[in-house]
Amino acid sequence: MKKYLLLSFTLLMMGCKSASLQPHIGSGPIVLGNEVQEAFDKYLKTNSAVFAVSEDGRSSYGYYYCPANYRCLGNNLKSVRPAIESCEKNSYGQPCKVYAIGRSIVWKATKNTEDKLTEEAK
């Protein structure tokens, strides 16, 4: 019975954690500016945790990475705030949102954005 309760509690907490990340994740059309894209490429080569960008994709970026032997990769919620704050310091008032967690892009592009990018690639 104790194992069942522990498992239930763990699953509940995992659900709460992912739900609390949602308001911080960006959505809608976005194209990264050259400087932001270069920073994202560098970020991918680090022990990356969270990468945030201004909502226009050009004004600013910020990221938070895990120093070696530091256990923050599994807790992206703690990494979100520093990444967003770093981005918003130089965003000229533009809000910043999470673009990537770890090496996965989590920004939610709209269907119209995906169609437009596909058409432009043709």
How does this model look, in words?
This protein is an alpha+beta fold. The chain has a domain at 25-109. The chain has four helices and four strands; from the N terminus they run ααββαββα. It has helices at residues 2-21, 34-44, 76-88, 111-121; strands spanning 48-54, 61-65, 96-101, 104-105. The protein has a four-stranded antiparallel β-sheet, sandwiched between helices. Residues 3-18 and 113-122 have low confidence and may be disordered.
Q: How would you concisely characterize the structure shown here?
A:
Helix content is 45%, strand content 16%. It has 4 helices and 4 strands; from the N terminus they run ααββαββα.
Q: Any descriptors?
A:
122 residues; alpha+beta; 4-stranded antiparallel beta sheet; 4 helices; disordered N terminus
Which sheet architecture does the biggest sheet show? 4 strands, antiparallel
Which percent bin holds the helix content?
40-55%
Spatial sequence of strands, sheet with the most strands: 2-1-3-4
Quaternary structure classification: single chain
Q: How many DSSP E strands?
A: 4
Strand content: 15-25%
The number of helical runs is 4
Structural class: alpha+beta
Cα end-to-end separation: 58 Å
Give unreliable regions as ranges.
3-18, 113-122
Rg computed from alpha carbons, rounded to a whole number of angstroms: 16 Å
Mean pLDDT: 77
The H/E string reads HHEEHEEH
- State the shape: globular
